[in-house]
TrEMBL record:
This is YibE/F family protein. It comes from the Bacteria. Keywords: Membrane, Transmembrane, Transmembrane helix. PANTHER family: MEMBRANE PROTEIN (PTHR41771:SF1), MEMBRANE PROTEIN-RELATED (PTHR41771). InterPro entries: YibE_F. The chain crosses the membrane at residues 22-43, 149-170, 177-197, 203-221, 230-249, 269-291, 329-351, 371-396. It comes from Glutamicibacter halophytocola.
């Protein structure tokens, strides 16, 4: 009979449980209401020019972005040098890619940069995106300029595979987590990004968006209960620490946020956007997922410990929970650092080949931003674990949660009576 109810909390005093819930909601409700109000206040009005970039690409007049499918490739006279012999020039040979436009018509010739072909050939069946200048009055050069490969199909298949694997392994909870992830990304696309483009305060937009996403995603994926509320409190604490550190270090370390092509494009077409502020917002969004992971795990750990050791003191529960938390800290910090180190291998390789050393490279604009992003996120993560553990212990003790062992004792007492 005991195994039938193994997952049910026992030895709970309804009054104490209610009091603990009231305390949690007294802390969370004002934050949730404030986040909802701020979302309404900051909701984008659509006042920015959605086609600013399209206009910047149309400077030649009549240029359009198009897609097509590779049919074949071969080494021939470069389209860009055709006709040069007529004016005393010399034609060159290169790899010419033939593409069938998605809009129909005859095959077109295109030159793909050799450095890109060195990494991967354009194979028959590959989808490409290119700039069509055929309607522009050009006197030289190819009317078709390669932009990038189209990766929609493989990325879509990978996303579907990811969702299937998560649902198969984690069941309904995994499905809810995936739905929450999709909803969170949609919220970022429709609220956070437009609000930033319209010139909203990046720190306020970032904190508001991250708080709203965490409220909905955590409760939707893990249920409306004290365990989730505890994790949410720990997550919000970590976000607050992350925001404070990011705000201070962006100025103290002279981070400009203008270290890549995308940032420079934004500063041109949307000068109202604060690039340092955008960097701070990015730190908050990046730290949000990691914080959610560790706080949920830590909260669940304390509950499991309390279920297996219902008579353990608050001090025992805290230190046993922190033993697990320390392992989680170590593994998560490794994950964050090595994930970026893997993405930054080309930069590290350049540093190894130069005489300026790794120290100078790490202090350069783009690398410094990523290193500081990792350190800020890690500090918020590390501090969130003991705070979440302490809150979880207080709530567990306030509700009197026990475990299967405690239930057995309760039934034995009833039998004796």
């Amino acid at each position: 009979m005991g195994h039938h109810h193994h997952d049910e909390p026992i030895l709970q005093d309804p009054k104490r449980r209610r009091r603990a819930s009231i305390i949690l909601w007294a802390l969370l409700a004002p934050i949730g209401v404030l986040a909802m109000v701020m979302v309404i206040v900051l909701w984008p009005q659509g006042t920015y020019n959605k086609f600013a970039l399209d206009g910047s690409m149309d400077t030649a007049g009549g240029a359009t972005m198009a897609t097509g499918t590779v049919t074949r490739s071969g080494v021939e006279t470069c389209p860009s040098s055709q006709g040069l012999e007529d004016v005393g020039g010399k034609t060159l040979e290169c790899t010419v890619t033939y593409v069938m436009p998605a809009s129909g018509g005859a095959e077109i010739q295109m030159e793909i940069p050799p450095e890109m072909l060195q990494s991967r050939d354009a194979r028959p069946g590959d989808a490409l995106r290119y700039l069509d200048l055929s309607k522009v009055d050009t006197t030289s050069g190819s009317p078709y300029v390669f932009v990038d490969f189209v990766r929609t199909l493989p990325m879509t298949l990978l996303a579907i595979a990811y969702g299937i694997v998560v649902v198969l392994v984690a069941g309904w909870r995994g499905a809810r987590a995936v739905i929450g992830l999709v909803g969170g990304i949609a919220f970022m696309i429709f609220f956070m990004v437009p609000a930033l483009i319209e010139g909203g305060n990046p720190v306020v937009v970032g904190l508001t968006g991250a708080t709203a996403i965490m409220f909905v995603a955590l409760y939707f994926a893990h249920g409306l209960n004290a365990k989730t509320s505890t994790a949410l409190l720990g997550t919000l604490f970590g976000l607050g620490v992350t925001a404070a550190l990011a705000l201070w270090l962006t100025d103290a370390a002279a981070l400009t946020g203008a270290n890549d092509e995308s940032a420079m494009t934004l500063s041109t077409v949307a000068p109202q956007i604060s690039l340092p502020g955008l960097l701070i917002c990015g730190v908050l969004v990046g730290g949000m997922g990691v914080l959610n992971d560790v706080t949920i795990t830590q909260s669940a750990t304390v509950w499991e410990l309390a279920e297996t050791s219902p008579r353990a003191s608050a001090k025992e529960l805290f230190f046993r929970g922190m033993r697990i938390g320390r392992d989680h800290i170590a593994s998560t910090v490794y994950t964050i650092a090595f994930a970026y180190a893997g993405a930054a291998l080309p930069i590290l390789a350049i540093a190894a080949m130069s005489n300026q050393g790794f120290g100078v490279t790490l202090g350069s604009g783009e690398m410094a931003e990523e290193v500081i992003r990792i350190l800020i996120g890690s500090i918020g993560l590390v501090l969130a674990i003991p705070v979440t553990t302490a809150i979880a212990v207080m709530v567990v003790k306030a509700t009197g949660t026990g475990g299967a062992h405690g239930k057995r004792s309760l039934f034995a007492a009833n039998a004796d009576a």
